[in-house]
Each structure stands twice: as structure tokens, then as C-alpha cells.
């Protein structure tokens, strides 16, 4: 088998909804062990890109690979990639533990894994509560727990910090760093630029097309710069 240094590869991805071009000729790679931030204004195509990578949407053209294969060709996908995004909805009437137990069975993960991920995301004390009683931040943690259930090497997260309180945001930052330190890979879409700047190794800035894809230090080159100022330079300079 060919050695592969990238957990995720997106190659010439284009996605149209009818006549609307949501993503156009987008290419980037996410190396193993790195945290890559996917940035762009509302409607830039971030969620479309992530959904296409995990097989929820078919690309109009181009392709994306996880561990060298299209998502649909992965054997036991939950062991390759954990996905957390809006619209994955929870069945409100069941408990957090039950939700994770269902995810565990679907992923073919070992008995006891639900307890482990509840612990990992700090929800152990809430395991018996019904999901509909969860706050936004608790629901985010539950979504992350479900993404972790198959012990994947890669996480794909769409705005996981939305609704988290400052403590939750700090917790997420530490969690992501620790996950990457243990060899995990993360592709994360977020609007929280100063927060992202603290955790990402690389950034992909898009506005339908890629405006920048590369190392954070190649974008934010001096102490006087910030990810936010560079982001505005890129996005405001781009045609709609
Ligand atoms: N199911 C859909 N049908 C038609 N158009 C869609 C659909 N989903 C997204 N779009 C359009 O595709 C474009 C990209 O949307 P997308 O949700 O990928 O953006 P985003 O970068 O995730 O934005 P946000 O920051 O608001 O989450 C937008 O113009 C949006 O209106
Ligand atoms: Mg989105």
C-alpha cells in the first residue's frame, strides 16, 4: 500500500446546488496529526465541503479522500473519522448514554466505549439525563462524544464551539490539542478566529474558492498580524 501522509485530501472539489455554485475547484490536504481550520464567511461553502468529505453530499466534480479512500469505500468509517456537525439531530427523549450506546453499536465499538467517551467530554454526571434537557454546550459535548465513539484517527467538526461558555471553549481547545498530540487529526470549521489561532497548524480560507491554504505561520507572519486581520484581508479582497 502507498504511504499516505494525509488524513484528508480534497481534490478539485466543486459542488453545485442547482445553478448555485457553493464550492468551486477546492483543493487542500490535512496531514496526519495536524489541526486544520476551515474558515470563511457565512455561505462560503464550509459545511458543504465537510458534508461532501463525509459522504453526506455527492460532489458535482472532484473528489475527497479519507485515509486514502473515498468515504463510501471505507471499511467501518467510524473507526476512520468521527463527525460532529449540526443537523445530526438527537432523539430528544432518550438519555445521553442511550444515544451513545446506539452510536457505539452502529460503529461496532467495544462495550464500555460509551462510558469512556462520556468521561472524555465531561458528561459522565449527565449520562442519565434526557438529551432534550441538555443546554447548547452540553449538546455540543454529546455530539463530540458520538464522534469519538469509534476511536477514529480523524475528527471533522463543524462549528463545535458554538454555544460553549468560556470554560467549554477552553476545554475544547485543550481537548483538540491533546487529541492531536496523541496523533489525531482534526478538520474544524469555525468563526472563532482568535480561538482557532491558538490551536490550528494550518488554515484553509474559502469563499466558494480557496483564498488561502497552508500553514498558519505562512499566513500570520509577524507578531503585529493576527489570523483575524489576515482573514479580513483575504475575504474582503475576494470577489463574491
Ligand atoms: N441544501 C442546500 N440547497 C441549496 N443551497 C444550499 C444548500 N446548502 C447550502 N446551500 C448554499 O450553498 C452555499 C454554501 O453554504 P454552506 O452551508 O456550505 O456555507 P458555510 O460556509 O457553512 O456557511 P455558515 O458559516 O453560515 O455555516 C450558500 O450559498 C448556501 O445558501
Ligand atoms: Mg456552515
**What is the CATH fold-level name of the domain at 1-75 and 185-240?**
Rossmann fold
In percent, how helical is the residue content?
Answer: 25-40%
Question: SS-based structural class?
Answer: alpha/beta
Which stretches of 5+ consecutive residues score pLDDT under 50? none
Mean pLDDT: 94
Described by the principal axes of the CA atoms, the overall outline is: globular
CATH architecture title of the domain at 1-75 and 185-240: 3-Layer(aba) Sandwich
Describe the structure in brief.
By secondary structure, the chain is of the alpha/beta class. It has eight helices and nine strands. The strands form two sheets. Strands 5-6-7-3-8-9 form a six-stranded mixed sheet, with helices on both faces. The chain has a three-stranded antiparallel sheet with strand order 2-1-4, with helices on one face.
Which descriptors would you attach to this protein?
240 residues, alpha/beta, 6-stranded mixed β-sheet, binds adenosine-5'-triphosphate, binds magnesium ion
Descriptive account of the structure:
The structure is a single chain. The longest helix is centred in the C-terminal third of the chain and has 16 residues, at 166-181. This protein has a 6-stranded mixed β-sheet with strand order 5-6-7-3-8-9, with helices on both faces. It has a domain at 1-75 and 185-240: Rossmann fold, CATH 3.40.50.300. It is built from 8 helices and 9 strands. By secondary structure, it is α/β, with parallel strands linked by helices. Magnesium ion binds at residues 46-47, 158.
Amino acid at each position: 500500500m502507498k504511504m499516505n501522509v494525509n488524513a484528508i485530501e480534497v481534490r478539485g472539489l466543486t459542488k453545485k446546488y442547482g445553478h448555485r455554485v457553493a464550492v468551486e475547484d477546492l483543493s487542500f490536504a490535512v496531514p496526519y496529526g495536524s489541526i486544520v481550520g476551515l474558515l470563511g464567511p457565512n455561505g462560503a461553502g464550509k459545511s458543504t465541503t465537510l458534508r461532501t468529505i463525509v459522504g453526506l453530499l455527492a460532489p458535482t466534480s472532484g473528489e475527497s479522500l479519507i485515509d486514502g479512500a473515498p468515504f463510501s469505500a471505507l471499511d467501518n468509517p467510524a473507526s476512520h473519522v468521527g463527525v460532529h456537525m449540526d443537523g445530526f439531530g438527537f432523539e430528544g427523549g432518550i438519555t445521553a448514554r442511550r444515544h451513545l450506546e446506539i452510536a457505539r453499536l452502529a460503529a461496532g465499538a467495544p462495550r464500555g466505549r460509551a462510558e469512556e467517551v462520556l468521561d472524555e467530554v465531561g458528561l459522565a454526571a449527565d449520562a442519565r439525563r434526557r438529551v432534550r434537557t441538555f443546554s447548547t454546550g452540553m449538546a455540543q459535548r454529546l455530539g463530540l462524544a458520538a464522534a469519538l465513539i469509534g476511536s477514529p484517527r480523524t475528527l471533522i467538526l463543524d462549528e463545535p464551539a458554538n454555544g460553549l461558555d468560556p470554560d467549554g471553549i477552553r476545554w475544547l481547545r485543550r481537548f483538540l490539542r491533546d487529541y492531536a498530540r496523541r496523533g489525531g487529526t482534526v478538520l474544524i470549521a469555525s468563526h472563532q478566529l482568535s480561538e482557532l489561532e491558538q490551536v490550528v497548524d494550518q488554515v484553509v480560507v474559502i469563499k466558494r474558492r480557496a483564498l488561502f491554504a497552508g500553514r498558519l505561520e505562512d499566513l500570520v507572519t509577524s507578531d503585529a498580524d493576527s489570523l483575524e486581520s489576515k482573514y479580513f484581508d483575504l475575504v474582503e479582497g475576494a470577489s463574491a
